[in-house]
Queue: 2 jobs
Job 1
Amino acid sequence: MRIEHIAMYVNDLEAAREFFVKYLDGHSNAGYHNAKTGFSSYFIRFEDGARLELMNKPDVTETDKTSERMGYAHIAFSVGSREKVDELTERLRSAGYKVKSGPRTTGDGYYESCIAAVEGNTVEITV
């Protein structure tokens, strides 16, 4: 068994798509739009086959992303080395994204940084 994909609602579908394509080497499909419901989405595929569905629908409400809460906490991307973690973290910082933590080695041995990326949702960059 494997996870087929993970999905997240966003307010700015195009900006979210651009983030995952530009910074995390994702490949996007052409998108889907249901004129009847207003639902729109993109599937972003990554090198190892993992997929992320970015979705937008006018009546979906915003939640507080500023504090820890129950539910999904972050999406983690392995970039292959500590140097690449450092490089991507700095690239995102320079692009104006907030680095929430790291790069650092965590108590459980991960080398990572956490970025407040797409609309404040946390993206973890790890080895």
Note: The mean pLDDT is 93.
Job 2
Amino acid sequence: MKILQEFKEFAVKGNVIDLAVGVIIGGAFGKIVTSLVNDIIMPPIGYLLGEIDFKDLKLPLADPNTYENPSEAPAIAYGAFINTVLDFLIVALCIFFMVKGINRLRRMTEKEKKKEEVAAAPTEKECPHCLSQVPIKATRCKYCTSELKATSSNA
């Protein structure tokens, strides 16, 4: 029963659910990219190269005529490999642009936080002698000309 309780705690954590959603969406995205490569990108390329279907490009390892069904002859399917490489490159490119966009948003958020921090920082201090407001970096009061102690912000 203890193992069941531990598994329940593990499975209900947010990270596991986020991971599951990511895997499901990633699988669906992979199918979309595969369809893009096989059905949209490769047919025009095959047409331009003499009406070749890349899926059928193979390097036979044995004479296909010696087999009852020639499609069962051992062969290196380099056309399918080219399709798979294109799938990977498109997915990698999409992920690259997604991460780049997320990083840009993160940097923009950090800049906004810094601006808020700078805006919230005091720009004036009070003269202890005449109680007037003077710039924080001032070493002498502009109203009573008293010397002011240096603050840590102008050190």
Note: The two ends are 63 Å apart (CA to CA).
